[in-house]
Amino acid sequence: MKRTLILFGILMVILLGFFLFSKTKNAALGFVVTSPEAAEILCAIGAEGRIVAVTAECDYPPSLQQLPKVGSFSQISIEEVLGYNPKLVFATVPTQQAFIHDLAKLGVQTETVYMRTFDDLLRTIDRFGTLSDLESDASALSARLRTTIEQYTLAPDYRPWVYVEIGDHFWTASDNTFLGDMIRHAGGRVLFHDLPNDYGKASQEEVAARNPDVIFVTYPGVSTSDVRSRRGWQDITACKENRIITLEDIDADIVNRATPRSVDALRVLGELLHKVPVHDVE
Q: Residues with Cβ < 8 Å from 71, sequence gap 6 or more?
């Protein structure tokens, strides 16, 4: 009996040591990422191997889909996150602010992401490089992207007014958003540039009164015919000239996420706004 207890004690010590070793290993290496933008940026700089878990929406590159999930973008399991004992959690503000606050109370370090401009994107890439000990890779990527952004940035004489619709009930974006910055770089002007907040609601009547040259719908399920058939919109310039951009024309992810692929969205949007090819970087 005594020998059995001794053996049991030794086994428990071994198991406890293995558990502590696993936790220490995770703590030294592991990132939990709840932001699709952060996940894509980390992978782009070569830090994918540091990611131990993600949310369901972190789906690019496709290899991320094989990683364990800690919930969805808006419903994250703190218990699952804590189970990985992460060195760092990458999250989005303000959408995940409550989750970030709860992690802070538990002493978990977080890196928050919220980008309003292409310059913010480049700074975020460099910051992630520092956090991942991949400074040179991150710097090389941000330098390449800066060159590409400059190449695709347009300064035409004619800058169309663009009504950007990001959700049902006429949710739209102001100048002070990543979409707003993309439209400016693509040679357009944001119709509701003067919103009091980054995002807000307009109305059918307000859109018609401002008479946009281009309508840009960035969420699924809306066709050009749907837009043209809206009450009171038949006389809007964008509808009369059929200058309506939907997700049939451009990929949703490269528009709605601030990532290295945003430069592709910038090129396509420039072409759509001005109906001329935007030449690739040589």
A: 34, 55, 56, 77, 80
Name beta bridge partners: 167.
171
* Residue with token string 């590409």: 148
Can you tell me the distance from the alpha carbon of 44 to that of 195, in angstroms, rounded to the nearest whole number?
Answer: 33
- HSE-CB at 221 with a 13 A cutoff on CA atoms is 4
Tell me how far apart the alpha carbons of residues 248 and 223 are, in angstroms, rounded to a whole number. Answer: 8
What is the per-residue pLDDT across 52-83, written as a single tens digit (0 to 9) for each? Answer: 999 999 999 999 999 999 999 999 999 999 99
Structure tokens, 209:
């009164």
Three-class SS state of 11: helix
Q: How far apart are CA 181 and CA 204, in angstroms?
A: 24
**Is the CB of residue 86 less than 8 Å from the CB of residue 52?**
yes
Cβ pair 264, 118 in contact under 8 A? no
**For residue 14, pLDDT beyond 90:** no
The count of residues in the chain is 282
Instruction: Give the Cα separation of 45 and 139 in Å (integer).
Output: 9
End-to-end CA distance of the chain: 78
Q: Which residue has the tokens 């992810």?
A: 253
Write the CA distances from 278 to 23, 146, 180, 282, integer angstroms: 50, 16, 19, 12
β pairing state of 171-173 and 110-113: unpaired
Rg (CA), the chain: 23
Q: What is the largest CA-CA distance in the chain?
A: 91
| Residue 7 pLDDT greater than 60, yes or no | no
Dist. CA 90–CA 113, nearest whole Å: 7
Q: Could you give the angle at which helices 118-131 and 135-152 cross, rounded to 10 degrees?
A: 170
Token pair recorded at residue 247: 């997700």
